[in-house]
Amino acid sequence: MFRKALLGAVSLVAMSVGAAQAEDLKEFRIGILGGENEADRLRNFQCMIDKLPGALGVEKVSLFPAADYDGVVQGLLGGTLDYAELGASAYAKVYLEDAKAVEPILTTVQTDGSTGYYSIMVARKDSGIAKLEDMKGKKLGFADPDSTSGYLVPAVTLPVALGGTPVKDYFGETGFGGGHENLVLEVLKGTFDAGTTWGSGVGEFKDGYTSGNLAKMVSKGILDMDDLVELWKSPLIPNGPIVVRTSLDADMKTKFKEFMVDLPKSDPACFSAIQGGDYTGYTEVTEEFYRPIIDARKAQIGS
User: Fold this and answer.
1) Sign (positive/negative) of CA torsion 188, 192, 198, 199?
2) pTM of the complete model
3) Does an H or E element contain 139, and which?
4) 16-57 pLDDT, tens per residue?
5) Between vectors from CA 303 to CA 135 and to CA 156, what angle results, nearest 5°?
6) CA-to-CA distance for 155 and 197, rounded, in angstroms?
7) Where are the alpha helices (DSSP H) in the chain?
8) Alpha-carbon distance 60 to 133, whole Å?
9) Most CB atoms closer than 10 Å: which of 89, 175, 177, 266?
10) Which domains does the chain have, with CATH numbers?
């Protein structure tokens, strides 16, 4: 009886502490993945600073743009971020280290209704490299070690396209470009003969597709698609999740989710800015949606 009473008291104290912490939440912290320059990322998310305080009832919304994917991953694992939009592989990394750290709640829907995108290998059009087979023995650049399209999916699926030849045996050298935007710039500079980035695969390559890194670079005027050629496109990859800190107050989670679901209609410009392209809206997801990527990352780590 004493043990049960003690456990009950401990439980009540824990609940009280949790409630107090929820009531004391005055700042909502947003993690932003690396991939493009910091000024652009901060500008794209400014609308969240303007809108979220009123929607969530917090005094302040703060942006934390990480230098790379792992910066956001560690912030989520450490509980110092409340929300982030991750690639599927970055989410898998969080999940494999602490399955209870975050909850995936939403993902984007492409203009064709799909909930996926593609890893796309590009090379300079004037390089003489016109197809994947031309890359044998040459230097391939990946975007980021924690990127789904920029590393994990190419590492796992390229060998299939290469007739079973491992990536390390087919290409002369591989390296990382420091994020998707910088990777493409390094391909254009000749640092890499080709590189893997991402796009919706919807629309035309000549336009950079409807969304993704190529489309964002075209919209910013730092990329002319006439300078690139597409060498390879991966199988469809699940769109990355919007995740929230699991320990976040339930009411706060509900308010945030409702805000995000309404955003495409309430403020299309803000929705487009934070997503970097054309999407129709969001749909709900759970951990199960990302199970293939979690399994692929686990297998890759162990290989």
Assistant:
1) positive
2) 0.83
3) strand 139-142
4) 344 434 446 799 999 999 867 788 889 999 999 999 999 999
5) 40
6) 13
7) 2-23, 38-44, 46-56, 69-77, 88-97, 153-161, 167-170, 180-189, 213-219, 250-266, 268-275, 291-302
8) 52
9) 89
10) 27-110+240-302 (3.40.190.10), 116-237 (3.40.190.10)
